[in-house]
Amino acid sequence: MTRKVKRGTGRPRRQETDVAILDAALSIFLQAGFEGTSFEQVARRAGVSRATIYRRWASREEMIARALGRLKEESEEGAGARWEKMRLEELVEMMVEYGPKAWVDNDARRLLARVAGSVPDAPLLVQTFWEVYAAPRRAAFSAIVERARSERVLPANTDPELFQAMLGGAMMHKMLLEPGEKGEAELRAHLCAVLRQLGLGAVLDRLGR
Q: Quick check: keyword Transcription regulation in the entry (predicted)?
């Protein structure tokens, strides 16, 4: 049975306090992983009381998931993302232009390692992030792929979920499993190569990639 994500109640939140807490939570999570991230440490770094955090989030998993979601939202906002309205060519252009820079700037390799390492010990963290942030974006991505399939930009038998799994898996392999630091240019070249393998060569050619 899917566990529902709890929402905090209480006094109205101050936006700057939320930001300070989530920034502190993300920073500590990147440094120390899930087990090394506590309300007490986050409160100390954010300059708030533990009670202030408890009023907002019922668990560390929910707090860290919200911090990860905020990072994702900021990256998409900077790229002018409006997923539900995008055509495939627009999405590809956004991914190629902004994705590699965001991955480098946000230390995506360490972030992926921390999230992957949380799977056995913090399933609620992964579930919360998936339900609140990943699933809606995957649904929007699938709708874009389905439109592209109906317009014959992609083959008629393209499976939107498998398409995303192959794309995401190839990028995770590059960033997480291959040794050595990865720069923006290398990640962009790899992303374009993967997209070509997925049948988007003509789209990349039109974009001059």
A: yes
